[in-house]
Amino acid sequence: MKTAAIAWGIVSALLVVSTESQSTTEELSEIQNKALKMIMEYFHKKDHIKNGFKVTELKKAIEIDYRTGIFVNLEFALKQTICHKNLWSKPDCELVKNGRTFNCFGCYKFYYDSHKVLSQLIECVREHQVDQRRTENRNRSCKEVELKQGELKPGTYGFLTSQ
Fold first, then answer.
1. Is the pLDDT reported for residue 101 higher than 60?
2. Burial class (CB in 10 A: 0-12, 13-18, 19+), 106
3. What was the pLDDT predicted at 31?
4. Comparison of pLDDT for 60 and 24, the residue scoring more
5. Residue 102 lies inside a defined structural domain of this protein
6. CATH number of the CATH domain containing 41
């Protein structure tokens, strides 16, 4: 009885973890979806990519509204589909069972007025290539994108004091 309860607990925990990891892109804001689309377009323009890929896991989605622009940071997993890379956005592309998986990381700083890109960083690598060192380098480089200065938010004033 006790082993059955332990086994049931483990199975329940695995189901919860797998459900949580399958976050969809439907919960992203408009500007986050724009960033995601730009990363996907960048990824599918690579010469070594022949098939289309789909987002299978959203690992991080951050949006910060600064007075100098909007900062977006995304990290997600991609899995290979049966479709050609030119058809990557088709919703009916099935995943390849043992297909390649990639980890994509993107940081954007957008202007307010038109949501044009002020600064960006994109990196997509095979899933197994993401380690602590790569993550630290990504975060350090992303901080530079985040701190990029754009025009001030409409209605924001700056004051200069003399000494």
1. yes
2. buried
3. 94
4. 60
5. yes
6. 3.10.450.10
